Amino acid sequence: MTTYAYIRVSTDAQDLNNQRHGVIEYARKNGLEPLTFFEDTASGKKSWRDRDLGKLLDQARAGDVLLVAEISRLARSTLQVLEVLQEAAKREIAVHVAKSNMVMDGSLNSRITAVVLGLAAEIEREFISARTTEALARRKAEGKPLGRPKGRVSEVHKLDKDKAKIEDMLAKGVHKASIARLIGCNPDTLYEWMKANGLSRHIKSRKPQPPVKPSQPEPKPKRKKS
């Protein structure tokens, strides 16, 4: 028997580590180790057949186990969740849901539970969408800007993808102007990013220099009276 741990992450807000921890703990408590991980970054709106989940089910054999952190990791709609469970049941693959501590083995009870869980996830997404729409409408009525802030803030966030590279160069003492040139940004943007990411210690404070006084012309020698 092989236990396949399926983890799907479609946005940055979803925590890959939390899902991984949940399935590992569940497998340990229920004697389902060792785990074979499948990590899928495709959106749940995409057909499960076209995602790594489809490859997993094609690879699995009768008696194997498909383990997910929660039912919504299988798909974004009740219909797709049921399709996955039907396919798993046809192949005699048990589906375990760690968060709900449930086993979907193709029986009538498990299919009813899957419908309830799928509907709950779908309804929650509709509530989130409705709250977001209401919040945007309220901001618009109040005359507040919508969407992400433009300009320097978005440019600063773009440097997040180069965090490891920047930290490595800072540790090696590479000059900040050179770092900015290498990653293709303005030095001021780099400084703002460093401050936002707790790297201010790498920024040397500059003491203001006193203004240079203009040189005074030398006084002309006085002419003696004859």
Describe the structure.
The chain has a five-stranded mixed sheet, sandwiched between helices. β3, α3 and β4 form a beta-alpha-beta unit. α7 (176-183) packs across α8. It is an alpha/beta fold. The termini are far apart. It has helices spanning 16-29, 52-59, 78-90, 108-141, 152-158, 163-171, 176-183, 187-196; strands at residues 3-8, 35-40, 65-68, 94-97, 102-104.
Primary descriptors:
5-stranded mixed sheet, alpha/beta, 226 residues, Rossmann fold, 2 domains
| Global morphology | elongated
The total beta strand count reads 5
Name the CATH architecture of the largest domain: 3-Layer(aba) Sandwich
So, the CATH homologous superfamily of the largest domain? Resolvase, N-terminal catalytic domain
Poorly predicted runs are: none
Q: Please, what is the average pLDDT?
A: 79
The topology string of helices and strands comes to EHEHEHEEHHHHH
Q: Using the coordinates above, name the CATH class of the largest domain.
A: Alpha Beta
Distance between the termini: 122 Å
Question: What strand order characterises the main sheet?
Answer: 2-1-3-4-5
Tally of individual helices = 8
Helix content: 40-55%
CATH topology title of the largest domain: Rossmann fold
